[in-house]
Specification:
The protein is an all-alpha fold. It contains nine helices and no strands. Belongs to the MIP/aquaporin (TC 1.A.8) family. TIP (TC 1.A.8.10) subfamily.
Protein backbone atom coordinates (compact mmCIF):
# COMPACT_ATOMS: atom_id res chain seq x y z
CA UNK A 1 0.00 0.00 0.00
CA UNK A 2 2.86 2.39 0.77
CA UNK A 3 4.29 2.51 -2.80
CA UNK A 4 0.81 3.04 -4.22
CA UNK A 5 0.17 5.82 -1.72
CA UNK A 6 3.48 7.47 -2.58
CA UNK A 7 2.69 7.21 -6.30
CA UNK A 8 -0.70 8.82 -5.75
CA UNK A 9 0.90 11.63 -3.74
CA UNK A 10 3.49 12.14 -6.46
CA UNK A 11 0.85 12.37 -9.18
CA UNK A 12 -1.06 14.91 -7.08
CA UNK A 13 2.13 16.95 -6.86
CA UNK A 14 2.63 17.23 -10.62
CA UNK A 15 -0.84 18.34 -11.66
CA UNK A 16 -1.20 21.59 -13.64
CA UNK A 17 -2.35 23.42 -10.49
CA UNK A 18 0.65 22.13 -8.56
CA UNK A 19 3.05 23.18 -11.31
CA UNK A 20 1.54 26.65 -11.26
CA UNK A 21 2.08 26.73 -7.49
CA UNK A 22 5.75 25.84 -7.91
CA UNK A 23 6.16 28.56 -10.51
CA UNK A 24 4.45 31.06 -8.21
CA UNK A 25 6.83 30.09 -5.41
CA UNK A 26 9.79 30.53 -7.75
CA UNK A 27 8.68 33.99 -8.87
CA UNK A 28 7.80 35.29 -5.40
CA UNK A 29 10.99 33.88 -3.84
CA UNK A 30 13.07 35.40 -6.65
CA UNK A 31 11.56 38.84 -5.99
CA UNK A 32 12.07 38.49 -2.25
CA UNK A 33 15.71 37.39 -2.43
CA UNK A 34 16.47 39.99 -5.10
CA UNK A 35 15.13 42.76 -2.86
CA UNK A 36 16.79 41.59 0.37
CA UNK A 37 20.22 40.78 -1.05
CA UNK A 38 20.04 43.79 -3.35
CA UNK A 39 19.31 46.10 -0.42
CA UNK A 40 22.35 44.74 1.43
CA UNK A 41 24.50 45.35 -1.66
CA UNK A 42 23.06 48.85 -2.05
CA UNK A 43 23.87 49.70 1.58
CA UNK A 44 27.47 48.63 1.00
CA UNK A 45 27.63 50.78 -2.11
CA UNK A 46 26.20 53.88 -0.46
CA UNK A 47 27.83 53.67 2.97
CA UNK A 48 31.55 53.73 3.64
CA UNK A 49 31.26 51.34 6.58
CA UNK A 50 27.94 49.54 6.27
CA UNK A 51 29.08 46.83 8.71
CA UNK A 52 28.93 49.24 11.66
CA UNK A 53 26.43 51.79 10.37
CA UNK A 54 23.06 51.10 12.05
CA UNK A 55 21.18 52.67 9.14
CA UNK A 56 22.26 49.75 6.94
CA UNK A 57 20.46 47.35 9.30
CA UNK A 58 17.34 49.49 9.12
CA UNK A 59 17.55 49.50 5.33
CA UNK A 60 17.71 45.71 5.17
CA UNK A 61 14.89 45.37 7.72
CA UNK A 62 12.64 47.66 5.68
CA UNK A 63 13.49 45.72 2.52
CA UNK A 64 12.57 42.48 4.31
CA UNK A 65 9.26 43.92 5.44
CA UNK A 66 8.17 45.28 2.08
CA UNK A 67 9.57 42.45 -0.02
CA UNK A 68 8.14 39.63 2.10
CA UNK A 69 4.72 41.26 2.42
CA UNK A 70 4.52 41.77 -1.34
CA UNK A 71 5.92 38.34 -2.21
CA UNK A 72 3.48 36.55 0.10
CA UNK A 73 0.59 38.59 -1.26
CA UNK A 74 1.26 37.93 -4.95
CA UNK A 75 1.57 34.16 -4.46
CA UNK A 76 -0.96 33.57 -1.69
CA UNK A 77 -3.86 32.58 -3.91
CA UNK A 78 -1.77 30.19 -6.02
CA UNK A 79 0.84 28.56 -3.81
CA UNK A 80 0.08 29.93 -0.35
CA UNK A 81 2.99 32.35 -0.59
CA UNK A 82 5.49 30.43 1.52
CA UNK A 83 8.64 32.07 0.04
CA UNK A 84 10.69 30.16 2.62
CA UNK A 85 11.65 26.48 3.04
CA UNK A 86 11.20 26.81 6.80
CA UNK A 87 7.61 28.01 6.36
CA UNK A 88 6.97 25.14 3.97
CA UNK A 89 8.43 22.71 6.51
CA UNK A 90 6.31 24.15 9.31
CA UNK A 91 3.14 23.78 7.25
CA UNK A 92 4.11 20.23 6.22
CA UNK A 93 4.64 19.29 9.88
CA UNK A 94 1.16 20.66 10.59
CA UNK A 95 -0.27 18.49 7.81
CA UNK A 96 -1.34 21.40 5.60
CA UNK A 97 0.69 20.28 2.59
CA UNK A 98 2.12 16.88 1.69
CA UNK A 99 5.78 16.01 2.08
CA UNK A 100 6.10 15.46 -1.67
CA UNK A 101 4.71 18.89 -2.44
CA UNK A 102 6.93 20.43 0.22
CA UNK A 103 9.99 18.98 -1.49
CA UNK A 104 8.95 20.50 -4.82
CA UNK A 105 8.42 23.82 -3.05
CA UNK A 106 11.93 23.58 -1.63
CA UNK A 107 13.40 23.02 -5.08
CA UNK A 108 11.53 26.05 -6.46
CA UNK A 109 12.58 28.27 -3.55
CA UNK A 110 16.24 27.22 -3.57
CA UNK A 111 16.54 27.58 -7.33
CA UNK A 112 14.88 31.00 -7.23
CA UNK A 113 17.27 32.19 -4.54
CA UNK A 114 20.34 31.05 -6.46
CA UNK A 115 19.05 32.63 -9.67
CA UNK A 116 18.27 35.94 -7.95
CA UNK A 117 21.75 36.14 -6.41
CA UNK A 118 23.36 35.12 -9.69
CA UNK A 119 21.43 37.85 -11.49
CA UNK A 120 22.65 40.42 -8.96
CA UNK A 121 26.20 39.14 -9.28
CA UNK A 122 26.18 39.34 -13.08
CA UNK A 123 24.46 42.70 -13.41
CA UNK A 124 26.34 44.59 -10.69
CA UNK A 125 29.73 43.28 -11.94
CA UNK A 126 32.11 44.66 -9.32
CA UNK A 127 29.86 44.17 -6.31
CA UNK A 128 30.25 41.11 -4.10
CA UNK A 129 27.14 39.19 -3.10
CA UNK A 130 26.95 39.41 0.73
CA UNK A 131 26.45 36.26 2.77
CA UNK A 132 24.92 35.68 6.17
CA UNK A 133 27.49 35.39 8.94
CA UNK A 134 27.39 35.07 12.70
CA UNK A 135 29.00 37.50 15.12
CA UNK A 136 32.48 36.64 16.40
CA UNK A 137 31.23 36.37 19.98
CA UNK A 138 28.56 33.81 19.06
CA UNK A 139 28.89 30.05 18.66
CA UNK A 140 27.31 28.17 15.80
CA UNK A 141 24.92 26.49 18.22
CA UNK A 142 23.85 29.79 19.75
CA UNK A 143 23.34 31.40 16.35
CA UNK A 144 21.31 28.42 15.13
CA UNK A 145 19.08 28.56 18.19
CA UNK A 146 18.63 32.30 17.72
CA UNK A 147 17.63 31.75 14.10
CA UNK A 148 15.27 29.05 15.32
CA UNK A 149 13.50 31.48 17.64
CA UNK A 150 13.21 34.03 14.83
CA UNK A 151 11.68 31.44 12.51
CA UNK A 152 9.38 30.22 15.26
CA UNK A 153 7.98 33.76 15.52
CA UNK A 154 7.69 34.02 11.74
CA UNK A 155 5.97 30.67 11.19
CA UNK A 156 3.65 31.18 14.16
CA UNK A 157 2.66 34.49 12.54
CA UNK A 158 2.10 32.69 9.22
CA UNK A 159 -0.24 30.24 10.94
CA UNK A 160 -2.14 33.03 12.65
CA UNK A 161 -2.32 35.13 9.47
CA UNK A 162 -3.74 32.21 7.50
CA UNK A 163 -6.28 31.20 10.13
CA UNK A 164 -9.84 31.80 8.80
CA UNK A 165 -10.99 32.56 12.34
CA UNK A 166 -9.23 35.91 12.13
CA UNK A 167 -12.09 37.04 9.88
CA UNK A 168 -11.58 40.38 8.11
CA UNK A 169 -8.21 40.76 9.82
CA UNK A 170 -6.91 37.94 7.61
CA UNK A 171 -6.71 40.35 4.69
CA UNK A 172 -3.72 42.05 6.28
CA UNK A 173 -1.97 38.73 6.82
CA UNK A 174 0.88 39.36 4.32
CA UNK A 175 1.59 42.74 5.90
CA UNK A 176 1.70 41.25 9.40
CA UNK A 177 4.10 38.54 8.22
CA UNK A 178 6.36 41.15 6.64
CA UNK A 179 6.31 43.32 9.76
CA UNK A 180 7.32 40.36 11.92
CA UNK A 181 10.22 39.56 9.58
CA UNK A 182 11.41 43.17 9.64
CA UNK A 183 11.24 43.30 13.43
CA UNK A 184 13.24 40.08 13.74
CA UNK A 185 15.96 41.44 11.43
CA UNK A 186 16.32 44.47 13.70
CA UNK A 187 16.45 42.22 16.76
CA UNK A 188 19.01 39.67 15.57
CA UNK A 189 20.68 41.01 12.45
CA UNK A 190 23.97 41.96 14.19
CA UNK A 191 24.20 38.56 15.91
CA UNK A 192 23.11 35.75 13.56
CA UNK A 193 22.41 37.76 10.42
CA UNK A 194 18.65 37.51 10.78
CA UNK A 195 18.16 35.36 7.68
CA UNK A 196 15.08 33.38 8.87
CA UNK A 197 15.08 31.79 5.42
CA UNK A 198 17.32 28.81 4.52
CA UNK A 199 16.90 29.48 0.79
CA UNK A 200 17.99 33.11 1.21
CA UNK A 201 21.14 32.10 3.11
CA UNK A 202 21.86 29.23 0.72
CA UNK A 203 21.48 31.20 -2.52
CA UNK A 204 23.76 34.03 -1.45
CA UNK A 205 26.34 31.57 -0.10
CA UNK A 206 26.40 29.51 -3.29
CA UNK A 207 26.98 32.52 -5.54
CA UNK A 208 29.53 34.03 -3.17
CA UNK A 209 31.28 30.68 -2.85
CA UNK A 210 31.20 30.72 0.96
CA UNK A 211 29.16 27.92 2.47
CA UNK A 212 30.55 28.21 5.99
CA UNK A 213 27.99 27.94 8.83
CA UNK A 214 25.14 26.94 6.50
CA UNK A 215 23.89 24.53 9.16
CA UNK A 216 23.10 27.56 11.33
CA UNK A 217 20.46 28.65 8.82
CA UNK A 218 18.92 25.21 8.41
CA UNK A 219 18.93 23.27 11.68
CA UNK A 220 17.59 25.93 14.05
CA UNK A 221 15.05 27.38 11.59
CA UNK A 222 13.58 23.99 10.68
CA UNK A 223 13.25 23.05 14.35
CA UNK A 224 11.64 26.41 15.13
CA UNK A 225 9.24 26.09 12.19
CA UNK A 226 8.18 22.58 13.17
CA UNK A 227 7.59 23.54 16.80
CA UNK A 228 5.56 26.59 15.75
CA UNK A 229 3.31 24.49 13.51
CA UNK A 230 2.70 21.84 16.13
CA UNK A 231 2.19 24.37 18.93
CA UNK A 232 -0.32 26.51 17.04
CA UNK A 233 -2.59 23.68 15.86
CA UNK A 234 -2.22 21.22 18.73
CA UNK A 235 -1.66 23.25 21.87
CA UNK A 236 -2.76 26.87 21.61
CA UNK A 237 -5.82 26.01 19.51
CA UNK A 238 -6.10 22.33 20.42
CA UNK A 239 -9.51 20.86 19.69
CA UNK A 240 -10.70 23.92 17.79
CA UNK A 241 -11.58 23.64 14.11
CA UNK A 242 -9.40 26.14 12.37
CA UNK A 243 -11.00 25.69 8.98
CA UNK A 244 -7.53 25.49 7.48
CA UNK A 245 -7.66 23.01 4.64
CA UNK A 246 -5.14 20.36 3.73
CA UNK A 247 -5.17 21.20 0.03
CA UNK A 248 -1.80 21.66 -1.58
CA UNK A 249 -0.29 25.09 -1.55
CA UNK A 250 -2.84 26.82 0.63
CA UNK A 251 -0.82 27.18 3.77
CA UNK A 252 -1.11 30.96 4.12
Amino acid sequence: MAPASFTARFHQSVTPNSLRAYLAEFISTFFYVFAVVGSAMASRKLMSDSATDPSSLVLVAIANTFALSSSVYIAANVSGGHVNPAVTFGLAVGGHISVTTALFYWVSQMLASVMACLFLKVTTVSQHVPTYTIANEMTGFGASMLEGVLVFALVYTVYAAGDPRTGPLGTIGPLVIGLMAGAMVLAAGPFSGGSMNPALAFGSAVIAGRLKNQAVYWVGPLIGAGVAGLLYDNVVFAGQASGRGNSEGTGV
